[in-house]
Amino acid sequence: MPGSYTNLLYHLVFSTKERRPLIAPAMKPRLREYIRAIVLEEEGEFLEFDGVADHVHLLVRLPPSRAVADTLRMIKANSSKWMNETFRKGPRFAWQEGYAGFTVSQSQVPRLLTYIRAQEKHHRRVDFRSELVALLRKNGIAFDERYLL
Predict the structure, then answer these.
(1) For the chain, which terminal residue's Cβ has fewer other Cβ atoms within 10 angstroms, N or C?
(2) Is-contact 93 87, C-beta < 8 A?
(3) H-helix segments, the chain
């Protein structure tokens, strides 16, 4: 059978530098659209985005020609620059080095969409560090707590 058929879904999580609360609620819709444009430019499909003041979650579908690390480098570098140019007031915006990335089964997409869309509610009771540790453990990823995002 000629051709390649893929459904490479990724749940990506990354935080602001030093987990500072730099994403104001008013900024989030514009940041969402800016990141959406980057994903589309990278030939990906933007499925969802949400987060809170110190981190974001993305659900994207990427083509096999795009490495997750390269796509995230584009997202983080370009959105940091854009945030600083667009929202000049306040502290300098930057993303923390690193990210957490998880592959997602198509059957789990509805559940993950609900989870991502409920970030504000979720983080009223769970802090980012606890959430990240739970995600890493659930996905069987070894980590050293000294180096968490």
Answers:
(1) N
(2) yes
(3) 28-41, 68-86, 109-117, 119-122, 128-138
For residue 55, is it within any domain?
A: yes
Asked if the structure places residue 3 within a domain, the reply is no
CATH (domain of 77): 3.30.70.1290
Q: Is 2 inside any structural domain?
A: no
Number of domains in the chain: 1
pTM: 0.93
- The pLDDT tens digits of the residues spanning 87-137 come to 978 789 999 999 999 999 999 999 999 999 999 999 999 999 999 999 999
Residues 6+ apart with CB under 8 A from 29: none
Q: Are 16 and 22 in contact (CB under 8 A)?
A: yes
Instruction: Count the residues in the chain.
Output: 149
